Amino acid sequence: MLKLFDNAWMKKYKEEWNKDPYLAKTLKEVCFTSIIGYGFPDEDKPRACIVVEDGYVIEAGHYIDQQLNWDLRAKEGHWKEWINREVGSTGLGLAYTTGKLKFVEGDYKSMIKNPTMASPFIKSFSAMGRI
Fold this sequence. Notes:
Blueprint: H1 7-19, H2 21-29, E1 34-39, E2 48-53, E3 56-62, E4 70-73, H3 76-84, H4 89-97, E5 102-105, H5 108-112, H6 115-129
Parallel strand pairs: 1-4
Antiparallel strand pairs: 1-2, 2-3, 4-5
Helix pairs in contact: 2-6
C-alpha cells in the first residue's frame, strides 16, 4: 500500500488527475496553472506538492520549498476519510468550516464560489480516491 503523500503516492495522483477527463480538461479550458501543496496541520511545511500547468499535473512529489499558490492541510485521518469515500461540496464545505481542512495558502471562499474552480477542486479528491 502506498503511503499518503510519499513520492510514489504523488506520482499515482498525477496519473489519476491527468487521466480524469473532466478534471484536467476543465482546468485546461480556464488556463489553470498553480502549485498546490498537501500536508498535515502540525507540520511547518507541506509533505508534497503538484505543479499544474494548463490543467495538467506536470510534476508531483515531495515539497521542496516551492512557492505555493495553494497549501491544503488536514489530519491524516481526515485525508484518508475523504479519499476512501466520495466527498462532495457539502462535505468539503463542512470540513473547511469546522477546521478539518485548512488552507495555509489560497482562498477557499473565493474558489468555492467560482463554478469553474469549485467542481474541479471536488474532483481532485475523487482522483485521490482512485489511488
